[in-house]
Design goal:
The protein has 740 residues and is an alpha+beta fold. The chain is 20% helix and 30% strand. The chain has 14 helices and 39 strands. The strands form eight sheets. Strands 6, 7, 8, 9, 12, 13, 15, 16, 20 and 21 form a ten-stranded antiparallel β-sheet that branches. The longest helix has 23 residues. The two termini are 39 Å apart. It binds (2R,3S,4R,5S)-2-(hydroxymethyl)piperidine-3,4,5-triol. The site of (2R,3S,4R,5S)-2-(hydroxymethyl)piperidine-3,4,5-triol has 11 residues, from loops.
Length: 740
């Protein structure tokens, strides 16, 4: 619910458990007043008595800088006295950087509008506040937009800049969110990593000068993620104030928290100003992506659950969000480039027997010589040596077997040896007089060129139409460099990185509009583009190229901080595993992969007989817990990253009728004893049957079974679920807690 009190000049946004307040100071400056636990009462004008807001510069013009540099503002500007991290910077035609945004007016709308060309949250039970601020000198109008929803403590925020002046302007930054707050001994928790070890949480004290998480790779990258948390010094999993900042965007980003000279905090999030500038001729506008602000007074766990629900209910549009996802087998780590139709059909046959739903044909199916990462990206027709009767015929065979069919593409890239490059050398991103830099033997297509975009839509759609595939894995294996385009004039070269992201969104939007039944899974060399923007288009994203289950526990823990488990692409890999040489047991690997979208990525035709025999049981177990994985509430009960031996997550049904605990003993505890895990989300007053399923017993748990203990919910939550020690490294087990 949103209110504006004209007399006091105070805006109040209420979510079920939080309030967000702004006020107009000195008749023209929009100040931030409060964000936190719900505020009741009508004495809100008291919040305006902060000495840093009054007297304003109209009363004391000689003190303008001290006002501008200390007032908690809603959207910080640059060049006019606020020396904290700016949210917006605007150059006039002389290249001079100055802007002062003054309050003009506001509107409260029912509903949640979309954002043109960008992914954005949606919802019917929502209200949106738009506040217009304007720089009287340049004529730049910035409209700040805030949406609240009846069922969530997440606030969706964005900014639209319009040049209402008579001269051209250049935006050199236009961030999506800016939040000035009192410091609560905040720590920033952000995700770092690298290829094969993405999304690892790191907690850093917010210090003077700034604490940063960022990417300038053109995609978020393996080493960063467009999200961070600010947790108060006394906060933990279940207690204390935690604020979340999630950017619905898939390119360069800046997340920064600055502790100011007065010990207050300014937190910002948006498109990275590096590699960004946007020309606004008179009348033109720029839309910044959406930022999702979250608040929990009950620790990090509750904030994660808020974001999981929000992303599932208000961001993922795919109809597959609420449908059982197919269990798939992907041939990448089974065959790499060394496959043909015959080999894939043998995998398909084994898959069908085991109860797998879909076969995905990964990299190497196209062009004339894609037998290594060096050729043919861009030539999106099948290789007839590998598929002698054509790919449509192969798909028909899969469909006739009762399997769905999936196909890999890497649309944004082009190989120097491709036909496409021979025909369109100017379609490659490049800087004048420089040979573009190769990475994995490939270059990046210039998606600010409309010809390239139309080519991609045409060739992908023709392949989907010809073959009748059910699923696409959209990969992206390299960062953007050589940011130059022959399709844009020199004054618009700073727009290329953002235009690239917009074009990716546009192509995916078009394909999904034309093929609404298609299931899309995004991927970027593993999890380097796992972000809220991509989730608007694909309900699941490949989480990492590392399927070693021990590594996956770490990767999944970081990912789950903000993204729902239902969105995490996770498969069973081989043992010993290629990247780590680690040997792990088959059922334990399968249990780890079940905390996500389940599948296999190993040669199932060459498994030992006893492992082949286990697959049907694994799949039927996954299908039974799939509704929880897709819709349940996530609780982290133990972190292997923190304790060095045990990882444990719980997923509880929203109606509290059941829960599962997935516990992985990574290292045996010498002289260990039994231990207890404390689940959340149960009904304290009802009885549950608690049953541990050991690997190998996965298919023996039936609803009418009366084995296990019957225990009341309060006992389970307070005293804990008892687990016996096991003398085995990397031992995974599942505890099913079901209402009696
Ligand atoms: C990177 C992806 O993450 C892998 O799963 C696989 O599709 C390869 N690319 C193929 O080149």
């Amino acid at each position: 619910m949103i209110t504006f009190n004209e007399k006091s000049g105070i805006f109040k946004l209420d979510t079920p458990h939080s309030s967000y307040l702004m006020g107009i100071v000195d008749g023209k400056y929009l100040s931030h007043l409060y964000y936190g636990k719900t505020l009741g009462g009508d004495d809100l004008a008291y919040l305006m008595q902060d000495p840093s807001m009054a007297p304003g510069p109209s009363v004391l013009p000689g003190e303008k800088v001290s006002f501008m540099d200390s007032c908690p503002v809603e959207y910080g500007t640059s060049g006019t006295g606020d020396f904290r991290e700016p949210a917006i910077s605007v150059w006039n035609e002389m290249g001079q950087d100055a802007c002062e945004l003054l309050y003009q007016g506001c509107r409260i709308l029912e509903g949640k509008p979309g954002l043109p060309g960008l992914p954005a949250s949606f919802g019917e039970q929502a209200q949106t506040l738009e506040i217009d601020l304007k720089d009287p000198v340049t004529g730049l109008l910035a409209t700040l937009s805030y949406s609240v929803f009846s069922d969530t403590d997440v606030i969706a925020r964005s900014v639209r800049a319009v040049n209402e002046g008579n001269n051209s302007l250049r935006l050199t930054r236009c961030l999506s969110a800016c939040l000035d707050m009192e410091d609560e001994d905040f720590n920033m928790i952000a995700l770092h990593g690298a290829w094969a070890r993405e999304h690892l949480p790191e907690k850093r004290t917010v210090g003077y000068g700034g604490t940063v998480t960022e990417s300038i790779r053109g995609i978020p990258g393996h080493d960063a993620n467009p999200f961070y948390l600010l947790s108060a010094g006394n906060a933990d999993k279940e207690h204390g104030n935690v604020y979340g900042f999630v950017l619905v965007y898939s390119g360069n980003f800046l997340g920064k928290v600055e502790k100011t000279q007065f010990g207050t905090i300014r937190a910002v999030l948006g498109i990275h100003p590096e590699k960004f500038s946007w020309l606004l001729t008179p009348g033109e506008s720029f839309q910044a992506p959406e930022a999702l602000l979250g608040f929990s007074a009950d620790g990090i766990g509750a904030l994660s659950r808020n974001y999981h629900d929000f992303i599932r209910e208000h961001l993922i549009r795919s109809k597959y969000q609420n449908m059982p996802r197919p269990v798939l087998v992907n041939n990448w780590e089974a065959t790499y480039f060394d496959f043909n139709e015959e080999k894939l059909l043998s995998i398909a046959l084994a898959a069908k027997k085991a109860g797998i739903d879909m076969l995905v044909c990964d990299d190497g199916w196209f062009g004339s010589h894609r037998n290594s990462p060096s050729g043919c990206l861009g030539d999106w027709t099948e290789n007839r040596e590998k598929f002698p009767t054509g790919f449509p015929d192969f798909v028909k065979k899969l469909h006739a077997m009762g399997l769905k069919a999936g196909l890999w593409f890497e649309p944004e890239s082009i190989s120097p040896e491709s036909e496409l490059y021979r025909e369109h050398p100017d379609w490659v991103l490049h800087v004048e007089d420089r040979e573009p830099v190769q990475c994995r033997n490939q270059w990046i297509l210039d998606l600010s060129n409309e010809g390239t975009v139309q080519y991609l839509i045409r060739s992908l759609e023709s392949m989907i139409r010809r073959t009748g595939i059910d699923y696409i894995k959209w990969d992206m294996n390299r960062p953007l460099v050589d940011i130059g385009s022959s399709a844009l004039p020199k004054e618009r070269q700073g727009e290329i990185s953002h235009r690239h992201v917009l074009a990716v969104y546009r192509i995916q939007e078009q394909i999904l509009a034309d093929f609404p039944d298609l299931l899309l899974e995004n991927c970027a060399g593993g999890g380097s583009r796992f972000d809220a923007g991509m989730l608007f288009y694909s309900p699941q994203i490949w989480c990492s190229d590392d399927m070693d289950p021990v590594e996956r526990l770490l990767i999944q823990e970081g990912t789950e901080l903000v993204y729902p488990v239902s969105a995490m692409g996770s498969h069973v890999g081989s043992s010993p595993y290629g990247i780590t040489s680690r040997k792990t047991d088959f059922d334990s690997r399968a249990l780890c992969a079940m905390a996500g979208t389940f599948g296999y990525e190993l040669d199932i035709t060459r498994l030992p007989g006893e492992e082949t025999a286990k697959i049907p049981g694994q799949i039927s177990l996954y299908k039974r817990i799939q509704p929880l994985i897709q819709k349940g509430d996530y609780y982290r009960l133990a972190s292997f990253r923190e304790n060095g031996w045990l990882d444990c997550v719980e997923i509880a049904a929203k109606d509290r009728s059941e829960a599962i605990i997935l516990a992985v003993q990574v290292l045996t505890q010498p002289n260990g004893r039994s231990f207890r895990m404390h689940p959340g989300g149960l009904d304290p007053d009802i009885h549950y049957r608690v049953k541990e399923l050991r690997p190998g017993e996965m298919d023996s748990d039936t609803d009418d079974s009366d084995s296990g203990n019957v225990v009341r919910g309060d006992i389970l939550m307070q005293a804990g679920v008892l687990l016996e020690p096991v003398l085995q490294d990397f031992y995974a087990r599942l505890v099913v807690i079901r209402r009696v």
